[in-house]
Amino acid sequence: MTDPITPATGPTTQASEVSASVDDGTTAVGVPTRRRLLQLGAIGAGAVVSIRPALAQTAGSVLNCDIPVPDMGHAGNFIGLDGTLVPAGTKGSFAPPGRPFKGEEVRRAMSGSRLPGTSYESNRAYMNYIRRLQRGQGGFTCFASLQMPR
Amino acid sequence: MRYRAPPADALIAAHLDTLTAIFHRRSGITHLVTSPAPEILAALTHPLTQEELLARLARDYDLADPDGDALAARLDELVASGLVSIA
Fold first, then answer.
1. Does A21 touch chain B (CB under 8 A)?
2. Confidence check on the interface: ipTM exceeds 0.90, yes or no
3. pTM of the prediction?
C-alpha cells in the first residue's frame, strides 16, 4: 500500500522567506535605481548548508565509528577554539580528549547536546575541528556518514 | 584576526535563483549558500578583519542591518563549513 501525497492546505511562505534577503532595485528596463540591499542577519536557518559526499553505511556502523580529535597524524597537537590544530600548550586551546568520539556522540552534539566529558568551550573547539574534517583525515568518513537527511 | 576565502580556482559556483551551490574541490563538499554568504566570499578574496569586511560590505551594498554580531555569526558558519579560513 502506498500513501497518497497530501497536498498542502495552508499558504506557502517558504519562497518569500528565502527571497526576502535580496532586493535588486531595478526598474522594468533593468536600470538600477539603488544599490542592492544586503541583510547580514540570518532569516530563519543559517546561510550555509553543506552536502557531504554520500557514503553507504549502515546506521549501526555510523553510530559506532570513531572520530579521533585530532587524527593520528596530528597526535600531540591541541585544538583551538575555532577547530584549528595548534602546538600543545597554546593559550586558549584545548588538550585532545582522552579517546576518539563515537559517531553517535558527534551526532548528538550536532543536534545541541555536548560531547561527553567536555566543557562548553572545549565542546565548541572539538566540534569545530570535526566540522572542518576533510577527505583523507582520520574520522572524515565517519563524520561524512552522519550527514544523513533528517 | 583576518578571514579569507579560498582562491577562486578552488571553488566551482553555480547560481540557482536565490541559492548558490558551491563545490569546494579540496574537501569534495558541496555547500548550498544563501545571501549574504556569496557576497562575503566575494569580499574575502584578500584577508580582512571582521571590521574591514563590514566596511567593505557597507561600501558595496545597502546593509539592512550593519550589525557586527550578525556578521560574526555568518563568518562562524562559513569558517565551520570550511569555506572561510582564518588567515
1. yes
2. no
3. 0.50
| CB–CB contact A34 B78 (8 Å) | no
Q: What is the CATH number of domain B2-79?
A: 3.90.930
Question: How many residues can be counted in chain B?
Answer: 87
CB contacts, 8 Å: A49 with chain B = 31-33
Residue A7, amino acid: P
Residues of B in Cβ contact (< 8 Å) with A53: 28-29
For chain A, the three-class secondary structure string (H helix, E strand, C coil) is CCCCCCCCCCCCCHHHHHHCCEECCECCCCCECCCCEECCCCCCCCCEEEECCCCCCCHHHHHHCEECCCCHHHCCCEECCCCCEECCCCCCCECCCCCCEEHHHHHHHHCCCCCCCCCHHHHHHHHHHHHCCCCCCCCHHHHHHCCCCC
pLDDT of chain A, 150 residues: tens digit per residue: 433 343 333 333 333 333 333 344 444 454 555 678 888 886 655 677 777 665 544 445 567 788 999 988 888 899 999 999 999 999 999 999 989 999 889 988 888 889 999 999 999 999 999 988 887 788 887 887 777 543
Backbone angles phi and psi of A95, in degrees to 5 = -65, 150
In sequence order, the 6+-apart residues with CB closer than 8 A to the CB of A2 are none
Q: Where are the domains of chain B?
A: 2-79
